[in-house]
Design goal:
The complex is a heterodimer of chains A (507) and B (428). Chain A has 507 residues and is an alpha/beta fold. Chain A has 12 helices and 24 strands. The two termini of chain A are 26 Å apart. Helices cover 22% and strands 37% of the residues of chain B.
Chain lengths: 507, 428
């Protein structure tokens, strides 16, 4: 963190913010690795590897075919180069596409049978795979009512799911929460119906690659009218060297249901960059609501920019029914390279999409992230709040699309994206696309700190604050609001981030 | 990077239909360099990122789409302004209709005359800002213009000029294809206003390169002719020196296709650049403003203010960028793009970008799109203002922020009168 210590910070930037960024981007705490015997598929990607992955997962023929078709499509696809990212080309034949601990060859029937080494790994990460009430180490969790604070965890280690907690209790409520490989086996009708229906196989280069080689991930189905009794979470851990992780998550919230889903990720500290290309698909039916929160903390590379995860992720939610609601919250602090645009297709009338993001890049990190809000239905609403913070020699880009289709009458979008530069060697960029095809909709994009609520300003001014103080207070309060959108389980990270204000920020 | 084969083939096919104009060796060299740039970049296609919202084919193709002549019977704009008139008809200089080109504080020459001179100061400027403006975003139509334009004005300003120079573009042939290339060089402390108006041709490709030296000021007010079917691709390239000012405003009413690009580079400290535009479109109207401001010096101010009023299926595009280089500290950058959609068929697309590498800057941008404010309309109607007039009043007030960017009151009044006339005629 020497880079940040020496940095001259311009006037107006809150020292607390600088300290918080330093803390978050400080020595990577999850950089250790688990010494465990692994089983690899041969290096490189061919049709045989795709078949092998399918075979290892005991998949039916239709799934193998689906993968092979994706592989054929991938061969014809070109790697995207439009993002403001600069990194050495990935050699896709120099990667392992499948790695699993030897002890997982026979799938354990219950958590008691799982290799203790693996359980230890998650214990050390603060994610004990025991069916306990709360996650360890979360401040304030003790006071929370025990009933509401249970978290079911699906733990993914390299290419396989190690185990899923609370399955029985969830089953009672009718909720299916398991690894995607298990879902293919046990609920093929649901997987067949929904897999690839939100992110089509040939959606983009990385999604197509994922479709061909995804090894594991989580599957959630919440039946009609059910409020999922606890928060669901997946913890992704990359451990093996030169191995890409390609997880696939599919969440289906049937009519009138509700689920909150959390995702966390870490990886060991290595000199070689590693690939992570995930796909997350969310289907939200009528009156259903999904909250999806991520704290992305992959290894960001060291201070000189060596190593780190290349994070190429496709996340999309399809609000199919009327009044469906989806909320993405992300805190992006890790990865050497981030290419990620969690999106909402607002198809149902009166459906709602929200996107809250804090992206922190430090040292040599690069992030090109944002969202897409595609308004198709009438009276749809979306809100985008993005805070980008750049330090060291990092580059941080917000890239987003807001599209109002002709039939999306009376729709509304509000976008605010602020960036903060700490030091004069980093960069902050904004690339929004706005497409409006009807006049009853209103789209507002802004990126200024001065445009705060007049009433709040008036209130503060009346109590004797000068304008600057009042703006700082209101903006600070606003930023905290975003962080409070995060579920309790991310409170640890959030508590650090709450200190971040965006005084002195630019567009 | 090699071009995709299809693009290369299309470019070569188009270039095979043109030949470079005759001229002195220095100019031929610059034109050949420009053609080489076109070959390297390829002509624009709908697949290019910067042509995402505007189809370039009719601007690129060899054949010029027909554009009927149009006369609304309105008195020519700027008639009330004391000015020096330089008239072009379908892209060719008309000496008879033009004023005597001598004026204190500047020299004006025709590009076609300059082209015959073995030695000329324009050698260091012609095409140079266009060439610089090709990075990081390609503007091949401007390079094509540098290579092929035969006419235009070459202006050297040495002091304060008493009246504006007015470039007037008449359109008389329904299939004319006009290319004009202007070069304006302002010496330190010089001051000039350039006015442009008229439809120019069925298809118009116009480039203006402006070099504003330290302490100089350049003002530019333009209206793009009313012909419904005309097409235009224009580029203004400017280099702004220390303590100098560059201000440009464009009014566009009608026109089936207009692409206005403005590329400004702030190279001296304490410079100012204001780029503004107002457009009103009804029906078959496509208007694209593409602006790129680079801050490469300290303590400069740039403003981009664009307002679009669209109805009956008209389309408005804004692509704007503020690039702040690492040493351009204390930059003050502002960008606003707004559209007022008067009905459900119209469309507005915007891409307001920021790219910032310096930490002590204040850059902001905003973009909004929506219908007329119902509350404001109700307020006016409650006070007895008929709906149509109330709508027009609110439309004018919406456009006001852009029009206010024009400093000269007489010119501002001319523009406002045009806007009022345009709205009134549509009110019937």
């Amino acid at each position: 963190m020497a880079a940040l210590d020496d940095t001259q910070v311009k006037e107006g930037v809150d020292q607390e913010t600088v300290d918080a960024v330093r803390e978050v981007g400080g020595a990577y705490k999850y950089g250790w690795e688990t010494d465990i015997e692994m089983e690899y598929a041969p290096k490189g990607l061919t049709e045989d590897i795709v078949r092998l992955i399918s075979e290892k997962n005991n998949e039916p023929e239709w799934m193998t075919e689906w993968r092979l078709q994706a592989y054929q499509r991938w061969l014809q696809k070109k790697e995207p180069d439009w993002a403001m990212l600069d990194y050495p080309k990935v050699d896709f034949q120099e990667q392992y596409y499948y790695a699993r601990p030897k002890s997982m060859t026979e799938k354990p029937k219950s958590l008691d049978e799982v290799d203790p080494k693996l359980l230890e790994t998650y214990e050390k990460l603060g994610i004990p795979l025991k069916e306990q009430m709360i996650l360890a180490g979360v401040e304030g969790a003790e006071e929370a009512p025990a009933e509401g604070r249970k978290v079911a965890v699906d733990a993914v280690f390299d290419s396989v799911s190690v185990g899923t907690t609370f399955q029985k209790e969830l089953e009672k409520a009718g909720v299916i929460f398991c690894s995607i490989s298990e879902a293919i086996e046990k609920h093929p009708e649901l997987v067949k119906k929904y897999l690839g229906s939100v992110v089509p196989v040939s959606d983009n280069f990385y999604a197509t690659l994922n479709s061909a080689v995804f090894s594991d991930g989580s599957f959630v189905y919440v039946p009609p009218g059910v409020r999922c009794p606890m928060e669901l979470s997946t913890y992704f851990r990359i451990n093996a060297e030169n191995t890409g992780q390609f997880e696939r998550t599919l969440i289906i919230a049937d009519k009138g249901s509700y689920v909150s889903y959390l995702e966390g990720c870490t990886a060991p500290q290595r000199d070689e960059s590693q690939l992570h290309a995930a796909v997350v698909e969310i289907v939200v039916e009528e009156d259903a609501e999904v909250k999806y929160s991520t704290v992305q903390n992959w290894f960001p590379g060291n201070e000189d920019g060596t190593g780190g995860i290349y994070n190429f992720v496709t996340k999309r939610a399809d609000c199919r029914g009327d009044r469906a609601k989806v909320m993405w919250t992300q805190v992006e602090t890790g990865s050497a390279v981030t290419w990620k645009y969690p999106s909402c297709i607002l198809r149902g009338n009166e459906s709602q999409g929200e996107f809250y993001s804090i992206a922190i890049t430090n040292n040599h990190q690069q992030a090109d992230t944002g969202t897409k809000m595609v308004h198709l239905g009438k009276n749809t609403k979306s809100r985008i709040v993005s805070k980008g913070i750049s330090a060291g020699v990092a580059q941080n880009t917000y890239r987003g699309l807001v599209s109002m289709h002709p039939k999306a009458k009376n729709s509304r979008n509000y976008t605010q994206c602020d960036s903060l530069l700490i030091g004069d060697k980093c960069g902050a960029h904004t690339v929004p696309y706005i497409e409006v095809k009807n006049n009853s909709s209103r789209v507002e994009h802004e990126a200024t700190t001065s445009k705060v609520d007049d009433d709040q300003m008036f209130y503060c001014r009346q109590r004797g604050m000068d304008e600057e103080e009042a703006v700082a207070l209101v903006v600070n309060g606003f930023c905290k609001d975003v962080l409070q959108a995060l579920p309790m389980e991310f409170a640890m990270e959030a508590q650090q981030l709450v200190a971040i204000s965006l005084e002195g920020s630019v567009g | 990077m090699a071009l995709p084969q299809a693009k290369q083939d299309a470019t070569e096919a188009r270039l095979s239909t043109v030949s470079l104009p005759q001229g002195a060796a220095w100019l031929t060299q610059l034109r050949e360099a420009a053609i080489a740039r076109v070959r390297e970049m390829g002509l624009p296609t709908a697949r290019d990122e910067y042509w995402k919202f505007t189809r370039p084919d009719t601007l690129v193709q060899a054949e010029v789409p027909e554009a009927a002549l149009f006369d609304e019977g309105e008195a020519p704009i700027f008639d009330g302004v004391d000015r020096l008139k330089v008239v072009f008809v379908d892209g060719v200089f008309d000496a008879e209709a033009s004023d005597d080109l001598s004026l204190e504080g500047l020299s004006i020459e025709r590009l076609s005359d300059v082209a015959q001179a073995d030695i000329h100061w324009a050698k260091d400027l012609y095409g140079s800002m266009e060439a610089r403006g090709q990075d990081p975003v390609h503007r091949p139509l401007a390079a094509l213009n540098t290579a092929l334009a035969e006419d235009g004005v070459v202006i050297h300003v040495t002091g304060k000029v008493s009246k504006p120079v007015n470039l007037i573009y008449h359109h008389k042939s329904t299939r004319s294809d006009a290319l004009l290339h202007h070069v304006v060089k302002l010496d330190a402390g010089a001051d000039l206003t350039v006015l442009e108006n008229g439809p120019a041709a069925a298809r118009f490709n116009n480039v203006m390169e402006v070099d504003v030296a330290d302490g100089a000021a350049f003002n530019h007010v333009r209206t793009q002719g009313r012909d419904h079917e005309r097409r235009a691709a224009t580029h203004v390239f400017a280099r702004v020196g220390e303590e100098s000012a560059f201000k440009t405003f464009t009014l566009t009413a009608n026109g089936v296709l207009t692409r206005n690009e403005c590329v400004v580079e702030m190279v001296g400290d304490n410079g100012v650049a204001h780029i503004a535009g107002a457009c009103v479109g009804d029906g078959d109207f496509h208007h694209d403003d593409t602006v790129f401001v680079t801050h490469d010096a300290q303590n400069c101010e740039s403003r981009q203010v664009f307002k679009k009023v669209l109805r009956n299926g008209a389309k408005g595009i804004f692509q704007g960028k503020i690039l702040v280089k690492p040493d351009a500290q204390k930059t003050d950058g502002y960008q606003i793009s707004q559209s007022l959609l008067l009905d459900g068929d119209s469309e507005f697309n915007a891409k307001p970008e920021l790219e910032i590498y310096a930490d002590d800057v204040a850059c902001s941008h905003g973009s909004t799109s929506g219908a007329i404010d119902e509350d404001a309309l109700y307020y006016l109607r409650a006070r007895g203002v008929p709906k149509a007039i109330a709508t027009d009043m609110l439309t004018l007030s919406f456009l006001a922020e852009a029009v206010e960017e024009i400093e000269d009151e007489a010119l501002r009044d001319e523009i406002n009168a045009r806007l009022e006339g345009w709205l009134e005629r549509r009110r019937g």
